Amino acid sequence: MELWIPITIAAAFCQNVRTAMQKHLKGRLGNTGATFVRFGYGMPFALLYAAVLHFVFKNPIPDPTVTLIVAGALGGLAQIIATFLLIYLFSFRNFAVGTAYSKTEPIQAALFGLVVLGERVSLPAALCIMVGIAGVITISLARVPLTLPAIRSSLFGRPALIGLASAAFFGASAVAYRTASLSLEGTTVAMQAATALVYATMFQTLVMSLWMTLREPAELRASIRAWRAALWVGASGVAGSIGWFTAMTLQNVAYVRALAQIELVFTFLASWLVFKEVITRSEISGCLLIVGAVVGIILTG
């Protein structure tokens, strides 16, 4: 099994944990505050990871590049917007279905990867991605009456459009991060990914701190008061990001993000076990489609 596969699955699990914690925090913070803790409290853990790689495992620190600075900043902004939109989705749908709307990311990441990096996916992998998207659509329609107006509202209503926009920004950020990481030379893959992660996280923390100081100071104060829970969001978020950055340095973004759909299976387990939400047969069918797509990606990737 190629290394990027278990790394991606582990990252998907950590991301699911982080998202669940952010949903819980949203009851105490607004959308901006719940978004900020992902980056602000994650930055120390990103720095610690890079320090361990350098001082303990002797990975050289690469020289910064213009590509790192530009692509890392663009990726950071795109991820902030994507995360904000994803958290905003929780206001419309339950935890599992709200996350499902954002899972069209793989096909959008494939398009961004093709345009920006010239990366292509094989026909079998493309079919697997489409199966995964079919699973997402099945889930998004699971709790909707099978009438034309209801289906149209589910697919093209405000929550769906917000979910699609979130997926687009996540896809763009993933390609930007891969571009930033690949621009670094003279070190290991792990340190390439860690350097790009540290830069992006520091940039995101600075941007959001300035924004909240000027526009939403109450949210910033609330984020500081919630530091105990926020630390766990930051730690799990960075654990996931370490996996994403490393996997996307090793492999085409489209493959990584397609395999990452396994997160939705973790989401349903969290919805069922933690949030006590009832899962329908259609949602289970959608999960099975996603699992089938993930297995296909592993075999074709």
How would you sum up the major sheet? none
Distance between the termini: 10 Å
**Average pLDDT over all residues:** 87
Fraction of residues in H or I helices: over 70%
Helical segment count: 15
Summarize the structure.
The protein has 301 residues and is an all-alpha fold. It is built from 15 helices and no strands. Helices cover 80% and strands 0% of the residues.
Layout of helices and strands:
Elements (H helix, E strand, L loop, with lengths): L3 H22 L5 H10 L2 H14 L9 H24 L5 H6 L4 H13 L5 H18 L7 H9 L1 H25 L6 H27 L1 H9 L1 H24 L2 H7 L2 H12 L7 H20 L1
Helix pairs in contact: 1-2, 1-12, 1-14, 2-4, 2-10, 2-11, 2-12, 3-10, 4-9, 4-10, 6-9, 6-13, 7-15, 8-9, 9-10, 9-12, 10-11, 10-12, 14-15
List the defining traits of the structure above.
301 residues; 15 helices
Protein described:
The chain is mainly α and 301 residues long. 80% of the residues lie in helices and 0% in strands. It has 15 helices and no strands. Helix 1 (4-25) crosses helix 2, helix 2 runs antiparallel to helix 4 (66-89) and helix 6 packs antiparallel against helix 13. The longest helix has 27 residues, at 189-215. The radius of gyration is 18 Å and the shape is globular. The mean pLDDT is 87.
